[in-house]
Amino acid sequence: MLEPAIIKTKVAPQFGGPALEGSEDSDTGIGVCGWILTIICWLLVLVTMPFSFFICFKVVQEYERAVIFRLGRLLSGGAKGPGIFFILPCIETYTKVDLRTGVFDIPPQEVLTKDSVTVSVDAVVYFRVSNATVSVANVENAHHSTRLLAQTTLRNILGTKDLHEILGDRETISGSMQAALDEATESWGIKVERVEIKDVRLPVQLQRAMAAEAEASREARAKVIAAEGEFKASTALKEASMVIAQSPAALQLRYLQTLSTISAEKNSTIIFPLPIDFLTQFMR
């Protein structure tokens, strides 16, 4: 009777993460039937040489690893590759795992923010397999599981944020989401490298309200700036009038300068200059 293998984790230097191993070597505990099948497979390979080499020898690329199972048990030594490796037909199976950085889009998620505003947010996640053995043995489909977890994590994190935080603090949200995903997928042999918020779509009514608010704010700032300009201009005119009042000759010069400006701009206008003293009599 076969005894169940005890699965535990250890640090695998070749992958930099936890790896699976049995409580003993993979060849022990397979029972008499397992040894008999192994011997038969070896005999079959020797009898059918060299044709058996085309079946027994496999190759994985530099960015791939092969996780081998013998009679349902993981082989000791972790994943194989890159390069050529040997498998026994009939009793050994292997799974290729791609170690390159992958990316997937999180579909738009309808989220109710903390201030009761419904927004649609989508994101993109960059991840890679940090431990090939764990990604095969600990989870059925590591990529699909990471995708579903990313959707749930996005909704959970955005549900605790206000609308202005989502619109203006995307980097903090991305960092929080990346840390949460990386912690959750560590036991799956997945390393989440980066999370980015792509787009935040608001309801049409809310967009119109925000546009009206922004327009009103711009108009208010324009009125304040115009009022400040008029105040400064009136202050400058007051100071100029005080200077002219102290010097009658300055008023005469200003009068002549005005006549020169009018004659230069409108040449068809006939100007009859009057002495400033004559106008002073009427002003009194």
Give the averaged pLDDT, no decimals. Answer: 78
Q: How many separate domains?
A: 3
Number of strands: 10
CATH class of the largest domain: Alpha Beta
Named at the architecture level, the CATH assignment of the largest domain is: 2-Layer Sandwich
Q: What is the ordering of alpha helices and beta strands? A: EEHHEEEEEEEHHHHEHHH
Helix fraction by DSSP (H/I, runs of at least 4): 40-55%
Largest pleated sheet: 3 strands, antiparallel
β-strand amount: 15-25%
Strand order of the largest sheet: 5-4-7
Q: Give the overall silhouette.
A: rod-shaped
Describe the structure.
This protein has 284 residues and is an alpha+beta fold. It has 3 domains: 8-98, no CATH class; 102-204, Tetrahydropterin Synthase, Chain A (2-Layer Sandwich), CATH 3.30.479.30; 246-284. The chain has 9 helices and 10 strands. It has a 3-stranded antiparallel beta sheet with strand order 5-4-7. A hairpin with a 5-residue loop joins strand 8 (102-112) and strand 9 (118-129). Helix 4 crosses helix 6 and helix 7 packs across helix 8. The longest helix is centred in the last third of the chain and has 43 residues, at 204-246. The protein starts with 7 loop residues before the first strand and ends with a helix. The model is unreliable at 1-27 (pLDDT under 50).
